Amino acid sequence: MSANNLLKNPSGEEQLDFWELTENGGSQWKVEDMPGDCGHDFCLDGVTKYFATSFELCLKRQVIDLLAEDFSGEQLDAQPAVTVEDWYCGRTDCGCTYQMSVSLLDENQEVIQEFKPEVVTLDPDFDDCSWKQIKHTFSDYGSGLRFITFEHGGQDTKFWNGWFGVRVTGSSVTVEV
Hints:
Elements (H helix, E strand, L loop, with lengths): L19 E5 L5 E4 L15 E4 L5 E8 L7 H5 L3 E9 L6 E10 L5 E5 L4 E3 L9 E7 L8 E10 L10 E10 L1
Antiparallel strand pairs: 1-4, 2-3, 3-11, 4-10, 5-9, 5-11, 6-7, 6-8, 6-10
């Protein structure tokens, strides 16, 4: 059985629907069409849009209620593999930062395990700013998993008005049962 992506609207096809905008700074979150100004083509079929960030921090998140997604407590207590993926890129004309955090939560929404890599800084003068994938699989985290939070975003490094910050798309969270 192929695992379904539990994130809704992962690539901006429905603009900002389903995302809680936890930080919406600068010119605010915006959805743009691939590849965008000073942008890069994307490698996955079917992804035609991305979310763009601005000159102050932009973060957005979703909380996934696994019981509401038809997983049973027994399935979740068996510690199924939880895989998270995200794609990000920078513009060729402006530096940016990218960050993400994913947490596995129990029924009280207390953290069981967290994946929070270091903030990434992309500088077009030195870095390849094309689309990069970040991927992590949780395992052996114990019983009690009931919710997953996924949050990501960033900003530009030059405080330019508009949407010169990191771009994100193609996000996914899957649970292998």
